[in-house]
Structure formats: structure tokens, C-alpha cells
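Meet today's protein:

…
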Amino acid sequence: MRCGAALAGATLAWGLGGCVTAPPTALAPPPVRALQAPAPPPPPVRAVKPPAPRATAGQVLARSERFVIYAPAAGETLRAVAARFLGSEDAAWSIAELNGVEQAEAGRALALPLQAPNPLGVRADGYQTVPILCYHRFGPGSGKMVVSSASFAAQLDWLQRNDYHVIRLGQLVDYLEGRAALPRRSVVITIDDGYASVYRHAFPLLRQRGLPVTLFVYTDFIGSGGEALSWSQLAEMAGSGLVDVQAHSKSHRNLIDRPTGQSEEAYRRVLEQEARVPRELLERRLPVQVRHYALPYGDANEAVLEVLSRQQYRLAVTVNPGGNAFFAQPLMLRRTMIFGDHDLDDFRAKLQVSRPLPAAGAP
């Protein structure tokens, strides 16, 4: 009791503000502290990859409006030089051809053509021609139009081994107008109609090798089932950047066939439809600009050519074999058929990349 009274008195005196000593802290309630979430673990330390060293540039020795004389640096490739001075790695062939080299060598001066030195492909021993190859179906089968996957792969590999340049059909526009040169061994690959075997058998082989092709389709066939390509397959190939989808008419009818009794006006309406409908449909459904046309059966007359020109086509191809020189008719280009029974010797014989100049006095 005495202890309790003393403790109570002390507490009262402290609460009244007297000079009595405060009660022991052990009797006071402990302070309340805010709880803090544990600190997040530090992010993992990732190794910083040092930037790749920049290729050392070579030395420009001389320059004019038409040429640059350039000494490459160690490790610099012809493709890198072409990209720097000519605007595209694909122009490396022009440096190689002009200088008679296959690769750049450090310190060895190269002449770089800023302008096409020979856009027409005319040389002392002849003039350049560009073959356009025409395929239809691929894979198993015994029909004449069917080229096996093995044969097609062998043909593509042969082209690459023997320094042929598979170019895009559209590159012929500037060549035929005298504005751009083409590699000496240029060749164009085209495929007609729109069979699904193109997607299953030819497209994988072209994609493995990075080779471009023009696929001519007649639009009544696409998406019709059976052996036809679907629109989704066509879109996938067009989206690859390697397959340029172009027009092969609407119905694949022979455009020079005019039924007995059909008026000139009615005939021209049919021609307009066969040229306009595929262009508009392909451009609406695919990421393409349609400016090239494969003539069904390779046939044309003045009315057909007039309609194609009016419908903004710049190139059209036939099935007349041979190469195309700078003076070829753009809407009647030669094209060589490749059949399933061709071996590599037959294939090689189809590649007309030049023709000799006619002898003096020859007709």
C-alpha cells in the first residue's frame, strides 16, 4: 500500500507540472513505429556488350561527276563500298565488273561508277540480252509443265554457282529506257497462272536462296480451290519481298480471239476487263503495284497493246524464246519456257545473255 501510494503521488505531481522527477520510462508505453516494406532486391547486373568497332573507311583518291577512285580499307567489302558510294549493296556487281575483281583488297584502288558507264550493254564483241524464264507448276508429277523440286533447286544453284544475277522484272524498265545498266549475266524468273504448287515447292527454295521471282496470276483462278493458290498464300508470298505478284489477265482467255459477229466496241470492252480487273483486284487485296502483264498464250495484237498501255502497264511478256536487248519492245518481251524434262544442259542452253554484233553488210 505504501509503495502504491508513493507511486500514485509521484505520478500526480508529474502530471501537475511540479518539480518532481518523471516516472521511470519503463512504465511508459513504447513508441509506435511505422512498418516499412522491405526494400526490393537490386536489379540483376547485365553485362554490357561493347559496341562493334566501326569499319575503317578507305581513302578517296580522286573524284569526278562520273567516277570515284577509291582505295578500300582492310576488311572493307565491295558491298560495303557500293552501299557507301552507289547507294545500294546490290550495285557491288558494277564495281566488280568495271575493275575485273571479285573482292576488295586493302589499298588497291578501285574505280567506282557514279553513273552507268554502259547502260545499253553494247560491247565490241556484241550486246547484252536478258533472258526471262517461264515456269508453271512444281513438285511431283509427269506433265511437261511440271518441274520437280530437285530440278528447280539444281537450276537455281547452277545460276548462283556460275555468277548469274537473278534480277527483278521491274529492273528492265530503266534498262530498256537507257537509264540503268544491268549485270552482264542477268536473268529474270517468272511463274505463270497461280498453282498452289508454287507455294508448296518453289517458294521455299527461292526463299532459302533469297532469289526474287515474278508470279503472274489470272484472278478468276485465285481462291477457287483445288490446285489454285489461296489469297492467304498469295499474301504471304507477296509479303516476303521476294515474290512480285502481277497480272496474267482475268480469265486466261486468248486475247486475240474475237468471236464471230462480236462488234469492235464489245471486243474492246472485253479487253479492258481482262486488263483492268486483275490490276485493281490485286492492288486492293495485296501489297503490290501491278504494272506488268503476262499475255495469255503469249498472243497480242494492236488492240491488246493499246489497252495495256491505257491501263498503265509498263512491261508485258510473251512466250517467244530468246533474250531481250535494250531495244526490245517493252509490251512484247521475249520469254523462254522451262519444262519438266529439261536437264541442266537444256537449261543452260536457254540462257541467252548476249548476241554478237552483225557482220558489216549483213542484212
About this structure: DSSP finds ten helices and 17 strands in the chain. Confidence is low (pLDDT under 50) at residues 1-28. Residues 254 and 296 are 6 Å apart (CA to CA).
